[in-house]
Amino acid sequence: MGDAAGEVDALCMLARVAVRGGDLAGCRELALEALEVAHRDGDSALEQEPVHVLAAVARMRGELEEARELFARSIALREEAGLADLVAWEQLNLGYVELESGDVDRARELFDGVRRYAGEHGVGDLVPYGVLASAVLAERDGDTAGAVRLLAEVERALRERGQVLDPDDAEVREALRARLVTTLGEGERGKES
Fold it and tell me: What is the pTM of this model?
């Protein structure tokens, strides 16, 4: 198992490098290779990271049904292994898939659960991600000022922790920032009329 675990880990690390470089296809291929190694070894615990990476790539490619299935599988694998913190991370990711699919209520439910879990269990690295989810929901609810305030809180939390968002979440932040700038700019133009 040690060799398979090391190989899966190395392939997933390379996949993460590929996705950070914008190479989704290369990332997907490396994650599929890692999943094949895990299957060959017969240890379902080794599937966790490759399945997560494949889910993230599917989400970034807009393949929401595939992403939903893969995140659900990842949650099940992590629950089976007793990794509650990682379950919360995957629930956050699944929340974005639900939001992008139009199920705002399900997304809100997942995001609320993640924020609660992070607070109750002191998962500090999850905090900026939970706040970003809140900012996205605030903007969706028409609370531009709240979304701006929460986005500033995300940036502050990232700075304080020396943390960088994962690529898919960084895309969410940048898209939200662009929409807020547009909305605020339109508001200012409306005041001049």
Answer: 0.88
